[in-house]
Structures are given as C-alpha cells and as structure tokens.
Amino acid sequence: MTHIGQIKGTDFHFTDCLFFGALMSATDPVTVLAIFNELHVDTDLYTLLFGESVLNDAVAIVLTYSIAIYSPKENPHVFDGRAFFQSVGHFAGIFAGSFAIGTAYTVVTALLTKFTKLCDFPMLETGLFFILSWSAFLSAEAAGLTGIVAVLFCGITQAHYTYNNLSEESKAITKQLFHFMNFLAENFIFCYMGLALFTFQNHIFNALFITGAFIAIFVARACNIYPLSFLLNLGRKNKIPWNFQHMMMFSGLRGAIAFALAIRDTGTQAKQMMLTTTLLIVFLTVWVLGGGTTSMLTWLHIRVGVDPDEEMKREVDNQAATGDLGTSVTQAESAWLFSMWYTFDHKYIKPILTHSGPPLTATLPVWCGPIAKILTSPHAYENQEQLHNEDSDFISQDELTINVESTTERPWTVRVDADDGVPPAHQESLQEGDLGLGGYASSVGNSSA
Fold first, then answer.
1. Based on the number of CB atoms within 10 Å of its own CB, is 258 exposed (0-12), middle (13-18) or buried (19 or more)?
2. Distances (CA, A) of 151 to 63, 142, 261
3. Residue 123: exposed, middle, or buried by beta-carbon count in 10 A (0-12, 13-18, 19+)?
4. Distance between CA atoms of residues 17 and 212, nearest Å
5. Cα(140)–Cα(151) distance, rounded to whole angstroms?
6. Which of 377, 388, 373 minimizes the C-alpha distance to 350?
7. What is the pTM of this model?
8. Which of 49, 202, 240, 283 is spaced 20 to 30 A from 226 at the CA atom?
9. Which residues does 361 contact at the CB level (< 8 Å), separation at least 6?
10. What local confidence, expressed as pLDDT, does residue 101 receive?
C-alpha cells in the first residue's frame, strides 16, 4: 500500500503491521457458540472451537502488549534482533505472571472454601468467590501484567477446583450470577462498539486497507485451521472430519477482544485506521458469519440436537454388543502427558484444594503423614470408595492392557441403571461445576461376579 501511494511511508510502520496482525488474531465466536449451544451441536465441534478461541484471545492479548513495548534504540520502526528477543522475553514473562496471579487467587479461594464454614453462609460464599476472582484481574493490572489473561486462567482453575467446594445453594447462585454477568457484558460491549462506530471523531476509511484486511484474515484462518488439523489427525484415531474443519474455518469471527485491543491506543493515524477497520470487520463477520451459522451447519451435514448422555449410553451399548471395550477413544487414547497430569492432579492437587480425590494419607509418603492429615478433608475419607468408582473411566495405558487381556478369559457385561442419576463419565465433572444432564449410570462388571 505504501508503494502504490495509498499510505505514506511515514504513517504506517513495521511495528504497526505487527500490532494489527496480533489484534486481528483474536477470534471471538460468541455468536456461533451461542447458536451451537441452542442447537446442541456435536460436543466435539463445540469443544474444539471454544478451546481455540480462548487460546487465541489469551495469546493475542499478551502479544499486543509485547509488540507495544518493542523499541529498538536506533529506529523503533524497523526489525532489530536484540529488541525482538526482549519482546519475546516480555511475552513469556507477562503470560507466565498473569497465569501465576490467576492460579494463586484460585489456591487462596479453594483453601478458604475448604477449611472454613463458609458453606453455611451461601451469599457470603458466593460473594467471596466473585470478589477474589475479580481481584485476580485487578492485581494483574496493578502489576503491569494482563488482567484478562489472569482472570481467564483464574476462571478455568476456579471451575476445576474451587467450585467443587461450594455448597449446593452457592453453586446455583454462582452459576446464575456469572450467566447474568456474561449476558450483560456481551450486550454492553456490542452497544459500545456500535456507539464507537458512529461517534468516534477520527475514523480513517481506507478501502484498500479494509479489503486487504478482510482477505488476510480469511487466508490466515485457512492457513491455521487446515494444516493444524492435518497435523493433529496424524496422531488421532478419532479424526477431525472435514466438515468440522470447514465449520471452524467459517467460525472465525472477530469481536470484543479485537475491538478492546484496537481502541486502547488511537494516538496515530495508523492506529485510527486500525480501529475503523477493526470495527467494520467485527460487525460484518458477526452479521454475515454469525447469521449464516445455521445454514452452514445444514449444508455441512453437522449433527444437531445431540444429547451427550444419550451419546454415552449409545457408545456403552455398542461396546457391549461388540464386546470390545478397547474402542473407547476418550479413555484409551489419552496422551501420555495428559495421563501424567491427570494422575498428579487426582492424587495430590485435588485432595489439597478440594474435598475430592483420595485421602492424602494414602498418596503421600509416610513421612508426610502429619501434613497429609492436616490437609486432607474429612469428606475424602467418606467418599474414597465413591471417588474410586468415579475415576475408573480415566485409565492408564497399563490398566487398559490388563483389562483388555482379561476380556479374553471372561466376557464383560454392561448394566445401565436409570435410577442412579448421573453417568460415571459425568460424575466428576458434576463435582467440578457441571450440573450434569444425565439420566443414566453405567457400570462395567464381570459376568462371573
């Protein structure tokens, strides 16, 4: 654009290109995910799209911070190796620091809800849960880090640990509170974007730049989705199908995060042009891509109306009919790194921070006995047998080998009880914050028992 005279060379620099690319990498498929939730789209597709958008947002936020402080000594608008590695160091430091602050507040909240009687005061418990989560954002901003990333990781870890410690009444109140705040925030940010589009005094509309930006985000989206899906499928038996990949490509909306990053600094003409372009991209992608989601789902033949519990029951029935329990992909194909993390989390972290998991007296060495007794919740002893049954779905490769070998000697039978309430694969998620949608419980037993 500089060479063809559309932008002056003194107005748009190398760092401006990096900054615009970083903020445009933040996908925000809120509209698509809301439609997915309403239509009960295949849970695998929902999980892939949600996880990708969360990771993109976190990286984009930290990356824009790092580019903003990129400052070579001689010329701040050209590439400099030393300044580049300094920015990489800032990126790693900001990301790690924000993660540490978010998880630290989770640890504090989890221990407070575990070792106090806050469960007797549901309103106070919910208020403390909210205030400490919000404090993660404030502390990160005060420390010069990114509050959004801190509260993101705080929310992820709070849902996995602290939510399990809340009383049933507090769980209901907390869930409703955050659903309401989520709804309110989404409406507010889109109202604010609409207001900024018509009231911002320094809009710079450059047709070539806007067109180039639209083309670039779709080309970059394709270069992200298809090659990464291909690489992932090399190591997966449960492949990411082509219709899922096309839907993920279609769902590359831009939204609140891109707008928030663009409006932070509008001091130069380049930044003003970025804000104008970002607003147009956000509105057009939300209207066009968000509005066409239902039609695209139909055209790509993606399943809707999927009930996760019915899917589980059907899978168990199929395994019982074929006599092959080794086909459970979600259980048997867990990556070794995930398997190691799950074992460590289940044996040590959860028992320390929550009422879940086995007693620490059974997992820690004998010489840690006094500490284990202090940190172990009384509920852990009461629920030890129940928790053992809940976690039987998550088996290691060695356990799988033993179980599969044993099937050659004794056939397996599957019992489905309609009165038990929640299927085993959902029981632990129920304690971690998922209210559960199941109506069946399956248990695998030996026919000779």
1. buried
2. 17, 13, 17
3. exposed
4. 12
5. 9
6. 377
7. 0.69
8. 283
9. 369, 372, 373, 376
10. 94
| Longest pairwise C-alpha distance within the chain | 82
Residues 320, 94: Cα–Cα separation, whole Å? 50
Q: So where are the chain's domains?
A: 14-299, 308-446
* CA-derived radius of gyration, the chain: 25
How does DSSP classify residue 163?
A: G
**In the CATH hierarchy, which fold is given to the domain comprising 14-299?**
Na+/H+ antiporter like fold (1.20.1530)
Instruction: Categorise residue 78: left if φ over 0, alpha if ψ from -120 to 50, beta otherwise.
Output: beta
Q: What is the pLDDT of residues 116-174, one digit of tens each?
A: 888 888 899 899 999 999 999 999 989 888 888 898 889 888 988 888 888 889 889 98
Which residues of the chain fall below pLDDT 50? 5, 9-10, 325-333, 387, 391-449
Residues present in the chain in total: 449
Find all residues with CB under 8 Å of 321, minimum gap 6, and list them: none
Token pair in block for residue 94: 């900001």
Phi and psi, residue 110, nearest 5° = -65, -45
Residue type, 371: I
Cα separation, 447 vs 154, in Å, equals: 45
